[in-house]
Amino acid sequence: MLIRIYKILIFVLCIVSSMLILLGLYQTQASYGQLDKLLVGFSRRRTFITGNGIKEHKINVTDNDKNNTQRNNQTTRKTSSIFLDYQQVLKSGNFSMNQSVNISEVRPDKCDACFPQSSYIYKNDNLCSTNNSTTQVKLLIIILTAISETHNRTTVRKTWTSISNKNTRELRYVFVLGKHAKDPTFNMRALEEAKIYGDIIIKDFMDVYNNLTLKTMSGLKWASDFCSNAKYVMKTDTDVYVNTPRLLQLIDSFKIENEIIGRCILHPTPMRNETSKYYISPVQYPHLTYPLYCIGGPGYVTTMKVVKGIVSVSPNIPFFFIEDVYVGLCNEALGYKVRSVKEFQKNKVKRTVCWLKRTIACHPLSPREIIKTWNTRC
Ligand SMILES: *[C@@H]1O[C@H](CO)[C@@H](O)[C@H](O)[C@H]1NC(C)=O
Ligand SMILES: *[C@@H]1O[C@H](CO)[C@@H](O)[C@H](O)[C@H]1NC(C)=O
Ligand SMILES: *[C@@H]1O[C@H](CO)[C@@H](O)[C@H](O)[C@H]1NC(C)=O
Ligand SMILES: *[C@@H]1O[C@H](CO)[C@@H](O)[C@H](O)[C@H]1NC(C)=O
Ligand SMILES: *[C@@H]1O[C@H](CO)[C@@H](O)[C@H](O)[C@H]1NC(C)=O
Ligand SMILES: *[C@@H]1O[C@H](CO)[C@@H](O)[C@H](O)[C@H]1NC(C)=O
Ligand SMILES: *[C@@H]1O[C@H](CO)[C@@H](O)[C@H](O)[C@H]1NC(C)=O
Ligand SMILES: *[C@@H]1O[C@H](CO)[C@@H](O)[C@H](O)[C@H]1NC(C)=O
Ligand SMILES: *[C@@H]1O[C@H](CO)[C@@H](O)[C@H](O)[C@H]1NC(C)=O
Ligand SMILES: *[C@@H]1O[C@H](CO)[C@@H](O)[C@H](O)[C@H]1NC(C)=O
Ligand SMILES: *[C@@H]1O[C@H](CO)[C@@H](O)[C@H](O)[C@H]1NC(C)=O
Questions:
Q1: Most exposed among 64, 90, 147, 173, judged by the fewest C-beta atoms under 10 Å?
Q2: Residue having the nearest C-alpha atom to atom 14 of ligand 10
Q3: Which of 102, 105, 107, 283 to mutate to test the pocket of ligand 6 (most atoms within 8 A of CB)?
Q4: Is 158 exposed, middle or buried (0-12, 13-18, 19+ CB in 10 A)?
Q5: What stretches pass through the bilayer (predicted)?
Q6: Nearest 5°: CA angle at 296, between 300 and 285?
């Protein structure tokens, strides 16, 4: 329930921020902003990409940088991009320049194995096994769900994941859970549920909104460790209707290569309105723009190769609590593209059941709407 509310709020944030961009409210420093965007892209792409995803990238904000005005000096730019970008953020966001910020606390672009790792409570490492059958795993769907949402998982089991025939077909699916933050009886129940249905993994982190990045990355890491025989991987949520038959039919025709497809944000910017509830401070994120990313509800699809890349760079990409942006940050470090595909929808307005059935993924839907959509013939 909470997760759903937060998700709606996050979408409102996305819409509001895109509207603000359209209105040009954050582009008062257009020329500087432009320069700085290029700068960030340049430094990230040139210094981050290597075979295994990461190369040494000097992020060191020295006191000298603070006084540096030689913005056209390539050497300086490369090593102090965060600081320069940070100043642009302060300017373009019309923050009080008076705010005192300890520059060493600004989120760096890279770190040394700083991303939090958590151990398994329930590993379920056999889920993608094909035993002796000839059925290969074409698509693994990782579904984010709050530990308390048993009813919602039941709905998803009865509807769009049912064609997996209890995880024995070319479609496999897995729910990712953490630990209940307050009530341990939820953990016992989740463990029982995991044993009964065999479609759950549980990891040792608090199952709360601010840990969704841990949840997403846990799912992707599990996929790369225990389901690497899957050709494609989708990440979605329990309040999504995924038209799995159609997706399986169309997935090859999308010709997904080194990229992520879904509903992707093309000009993503952090909310810089200090009075907003969704305000992201320059300390939390010092750049003018987010990397391109796709939103996790309705969901996005990529290849196992990209998933493995994201998992392998993630230890060195510092935690960021907006999970879709975090995946975008990892993807940017790899230099892969994102592509918006119109069948991935978020549309609350003209949502007739038959319209829903023509899309591949739509969001947000209640359990009742999911069942109705699944059962209707069009
Ligand atoms: C940053 O630069 C200072 C001075 O050159 C150096 O002593 C320090 O080790 C550097 N830190 C990092 C993380 O590179
Ligand atoms: C930065 O510039 C200010 C004012 O010009 C000066 O007082 C300060 O010492 C300089 N800091 C460094 C580290 O050079
Ligand atoms: C850029 O900065 C470096 C180090 O501060 C300096 O040696 C070099 O001359 C500068 N280049 C230009 C074109 O200003
Ligand atoms: C910044 O905000 C203040 C008040 O919040 C306003 O008076 C000022 O005009 C703004 N400056 C710019 C450049 O938008
Ligand atoms: C400027 O900074 C000082 C010291 O941190 C603080 O007391 C003051 O309220 C700030 N002024 C404004 C307008 O933010
Ligand atoms: C800035 O933050 C670092 C790390 O948190 C701390 O060691 C340092 O003392 C802080 N500096 C100031 C001036 O607060
Ligand atoms: C797969 O193994 C099961 C027993 O483990 C056996 O009954 C079945 O015939 C085997 N299928 C094939 C295609 O070998
Ligand atoms: C593979 O074998 C294991 C153990 O015999 C069984 O639990 C699992 O359901 C089988 N998986 C498939 C896809 O047949
Ligand atoms: C998860 O979230 C909680 C509450 O916000 C926080 O205390 C905790 O450190 C986070 N991380 C893990 C691994 O649980
Ligand atoms: C889970 O199901 C409940 C009860 O139907 C619903 O109110 C809630 O919104 C659902 N949560 C999500 C994330 O869909
Ligand atoms: C910032 O948000 C407040 C309310 O949260 C709103 O009234 C104000 O107009 C916003 N400012 C800008 C520049 O969008």
A1: 64
A2: 239
A3: 102
A4: middle
A5: 5-26
A6: 115
Cβ-proximal residues to 261 (8 Å cutoff; 6+ apart), any chain: 254, 294, 300, 301, 302, 338, 339, 340, 341, 344
Residue 143 is classified by DSSP as E
What is the spatial distance between Cα 312 and Cα 330, in angstroms, rounded to a whole number? 9
| C-alpha 93 – ligand 4 centre gap (Å) | 10
What is the amino acid identity at position 353? Answer: V
Each residue's pLDDT tens digit, 74-94: 333 333 467 777 778 887 777
Q: How far apart are CA 61 and CA 191, in angstroms?
A: 47
- Tokens 């009080």 belong to 96
The protein residue with its alpha carbon nearest to ligand 11, atom 12, reads 273
CA of 309 to the centre of ligand 1 (A): 29
Atom of ligand 10 nearest to the CA of 367: 5
Q: Residue 2's closest CA among 176, 144, 149?
A: 149
Share of the chain above pLDDT 90, in %: 59
Nearest CA to ligand 6 atom 14: 102
In tens, the pLDDT along 286-302 reads 898 999 999 998 999 99
Q: Mutate which of 89, 92, 94 to test ligand 4's pocket (most atoms within 8 Å of Cβ)?
A: 94
120 membership: H or E segment, kind and range: strand 120-122
